């Protein structure tokens, strides 16, 4: 296996409207045996970055290393990487065995070694009973496992995955996520994985890299990114439902710092206030995740949501009206309208009974608030 290093990598495409910069001065080091996930919305540059590593796109500027070797001018077949695509890319006229063996055959590996390697990988992926079938006779999940097997038998230095699960149904995606994670653990491989699904990124990656407009917004362990997003874009992109974001102003005197907005006036905890005093008087954006809210209300049919058991630090904010209720089984997403017209979502216990039109009072965990700059960059301030 090997580490992958990208130094000041830029890729531009020409068009009638001018130059489009798909990847913009990107610097990234993926460690040996690390599982790194590139995630972001469509058009953010994640697939282009993967194709640059694979050699399927030509660099505009910058350096790419696989191990100690600079591969800028190395042909894709000589980079010792294996790529798994979204559409499987299996040969329809070949059996599962021949699909998995094709790359080895092209490298003139002895027949006995091909048979042994394909057999071992087929057992690992539970494909041994399907080796004589052709792709048309396989389910989507089985085809994806064949595509994985074809990559694994080559024992490359680096595995590249380009949204390999997006064509599968929800249940198969969960199953294949587990299998890919297990393979990474068992094989000790270096994996770079591209997805637009932030849940997939959180569950698979040792480290996730969030991209926007070809620029890295944040890079870190999944829970680090979730708990301390670097800016408003990351805060809104990572998490389902996304973080609630409300504009207001920082105020206060002496040691205190308060957020004042349409939801009321909130005193920030002393720990958070230390880094925010310099921003008093500025317009900022408050962020709070839906799971850090509780609800209370007096409307008929609305149970008090365990307020007697609330931990210290929960603070009431302005009353809101219920717009939509989404039961999820283990929880309920309650979509609210804040006094200023902003959308607000609370994820609460399934025991809460609430209906559209009810008036409720949210309580938020003041220790879990996030404060971001109100400018375009939206940098985290606390």
Structure notes:
The protein has nine helices and 21 strands. It has 382 residues and is α+β, with helices and mostly antiparallel strands. The protein folds into two domains: 233 residues, Rossmann fold (3-Layer(aba) Sandwich), CATH 3.40.50.300; 133 residues, Beta Barrel (OB fold (Dihydrolipoamide Acetyltransferase, E2P)). The strands form four sheets. It has a six-stranded mixed beta sheet, sandwiched between helices. Strands 15, 16, 17, 18, 19 and 20 form a six-stranded antiparallel beta sheet that branches. It is elongated and about 75 Å long.
The percentage of residues in β strands lies in 25-35%
From the alpha-carbon coordinates, what is the Rg to the nearest angstrom?
25 Å
Query: Can you tell me the number of structural domains?
Result: 2
Largest sheet: 6 strands, mixed
What is the architecture of the largest domain at the second tier of CATH? 3-Layer(aba) Sandwich
**Name of the CATH first level of the largest domain:** Alpha Beta
In whole angstroms, the N-to-C terminal distance is 39 Å
Number of strands: 21
Helix content: 10-25%
H/E order of the elements? EEEHEEEHHHEHEHEEHHEEEHEEEEEEEE
Strand order of the largest sheet: 6-7-8-3-9-10
SS field, number of helical segments? 9
Class from secondary-structure proportions: alpha+beta
* CATH fold descriptor of the largest domain: Rossmann fold
CATH superfamily of the largest domain: P-loop containing nucleotide triphosphate hydrolases
Mean pLDDT: 89
Shape: elongated
Low-pLDDT windows of residues:
298-307
